[in-house]
Amino acid sequence: MTRLRTPRFWYRPRPGLRARLLQPAGWLYGRAVAWHRASTRPERLPLPVVSIGNITLGGTGKTPLVIALARELVGRGWRPAVISRGYGSGRRQPLQVRPAHGVAAVGDEALEIAAALAGEGVAVWVGSDRVASGRCALAAGADLLLLDDGLQHWRLARDCDLTVLDARQRLGNGLTFPAGPLREPATALARAQLLVLSGDGAADPAGLPWPRHRAWLALPARLALPEALRTVPLLAFCGIGLPAKFFAALRQEGCRLVACEEFADHHPYALGDLERLLALAQAKGNATLVTTVKDWQRLAPLLDSRSAARVQAIPLQLEGAVVARLAELVLARLAERGWLRAGEARPHG
């Protein structure tokens, strides 16, 4: 599978020449997405389904939000399960993610979610047939499904669509892939019931095609950086949708970055990549290598005890009060749709 780095022209305020040349292809892509949606008949399962997705191609902080929302729902008495495609696995039939699974079997995001929620009793299921995965989760005791990256997945009917948008980059140049970062035309943003603006940047949806009366939240996030890393040289690397966002977050924490290395989103690290990074870190004053948790999932199988001590994954920490408020809005939407926990009374008013 060919993986491309995010083009910088996607996030320029106005479309440039390259974007304009690709715009006809973007129009065709948007039409294909619209046709697929119109031709898909959603199937409903007998439990509430909450989709967490984005209208742009990666880099919004969706995966940490899935983890945080799942934890919040567990704390409120729900038994959620996460349903994911398992990006890159090529798997169709459902598989529950286990610690022994590798990235090739289930995908890096599913591994990250499963590892983070292992102590919460939240099962993570992967497979492109997400209706079948939902049935498996239901049979295993789940009473709510979190559909990871589900905004453009229409076969599984849901009760609440939550879309995540980077607060700084927003819709980029406003064009559909490959001319810009959008998976669908910008007007599709309003198909969701809730909007989350993640990270630093504009704290309101002004200028976005978002209905004025509809709920939205600004979700601040920062890196959970160990104090010991604030005083040593760091070499940062990652293969995510918006690598510059990770590097900027490290600088915001006061880190001393001696070099930054970008890879394509979901880059499958090879031993040669690791050896080059270790050699570069050594040449840069014996710098410590830092990366994202998602990258760590793809890199970990290559590490031995010696190299593992030189690489650290830095998780993203979301503001708990905002996640709690988001859970309240999600559950209010589910209550409107008739979904309540056993023994719970329907809210009045």
Largest sheet: 8 strands, mixed
Strand content: 15-25%
The termini sit apart by 52 Å
Shape: globular
> How many DSSP-defined strands?
14
Under CATH, the topology of the largest domain can be stated as Rossmann fold
Measured on Cα atoms, how large is the radius of gyration? 20 Å
Class from secondary-structure proportions? alpha/beta
Secondary-structure element sequence?
Answer: HEHEEHHEHEEEEEEHEHEHHEEH
Which architecture of the largest domain does the CATH hierarchy give at level 2? Answer: 3-Layer(aba) Sandwich
Secondary structure elements and their pairing?
Layout: H1 17-38, E1 49-53, H2 62-75, E2 80-84, E3 95-96, H3 103-106, H4 108-116, E4 124-126, H5 130-139, E5 144-148, E6 160-166, E7 194-198, E8 216-219, E9 221-223, E10 233-238, H6 243-252, E11 256-262, H7 271-283, E12 288-291, H8 293-299, H9 305-308, E13 311-313, E14 316-318, H10 320-336
Parallel strand pairs: 1-5, 1-6, 2-4, 2-5, 6-7, 7-8, 10-11, 10-12, 12-13
Antiparallel strand pairs: 3-4, 9-14
